[in-house]
Specification:
Length: about 210
């Protein structure tokens, strides 16, 4: 069985990561979305176990100690981490999973799981990014300033990603994400197991 794809999607706050990942799941119903743990308080409407696992700082640190996270990072003054177990189990079943995480976390995933596919989302402009965060209405002035101010630092990580998408239209960005998933699944290196039936060990075709 071919292993599932681990996709990492990062981008500045307000770029539309959540919206795109949800839209992508409509196109690929078997695509799993990793549910992160965080110490940030829930926003109105967010549900424990669905949007995030909302933990106290003590609970979060205990999970770090127990190696419960594939990666974790402090982002905009809160802790966020990806629980390892569900990711590992999904990939082992041959199913795909998408991690919507920040750039520091993506660096850690790249070290631990280099076969991952790393996608960076960009807003069309800083003005549009600010407009989207304000429209969401979830951040106070301090958090908004922190999120907008982080962009310069966040962009430094972009060259380490495999793909970049400017999210100027949801439909076009979902098409691009779908194209990446489809192309990655066709890569020879991801299909070695079943290809071995047709190709000899030295790579020569078998009569
Ligand atoms: P928000 O508070 O807006 O939900 O997320 C803030 C930032 O934390 C976003 O950039 C988001 O991608 C990132 N984030 C969410 N979950 C994780 C995680 O598990 N690990 C890391 N490193 N970042 C995360």
């Amino acid at each position: 069985m071919t292993r599932g794809l681990l996709l990492v999607v990062s981008g500045p706050s307000g770029v539309g990561k959540g919206t795109l990942c949800r839209a992508l799941r409509k196109r690929f119903p078997n695509l799993h979305l990793s549910v992160s743990a965080t110490t940030r308080p829930p926003r109105p409407g967010e549900k424990h176990g669905v949007d995030y696992y909302f933990l106290s700082e003590e609970e979060f640190k205990a999970r770090v100690e127990n190696n419960g996270f594939l990666e974790w990072a402090r982002v905009y003054n809160n802790y966020y981490g990806t629980p390892w177990g569900p990711v590992r189990e999904t990939l082992q079943r041959g199913e795909d999973i998408i991690l919507e995480i920040d750039m520091q976390g993506a660096e850690q995933v790249k070290r631990r799981y280099p076969e991952g596919v790393f996608i960076f989302l960009l807003p069309p402009s800083i003005e549009e990014q600010k407009r989207r965060i304000l429209k969401r209405g979830t951040e106070d002035a301090e958090s908004l300033a922190k999120r907008l101010g982080a962009v310069g630092e966040e962009l430094k990580y972009l060259p380490r990603y495999d793909y970049v998408i400017v999210n100027d239209s949801i439909a076009a960005s979902v098409d691009k994400l779908a194209a990446i998933i489809i192309a990655e699944k066709c890569r020879v290196k991801r299909n070695q197991e079943w290809l071995a039936k047709f190709i000899g060990k030295d790579g020569e075709g078998q009569e």
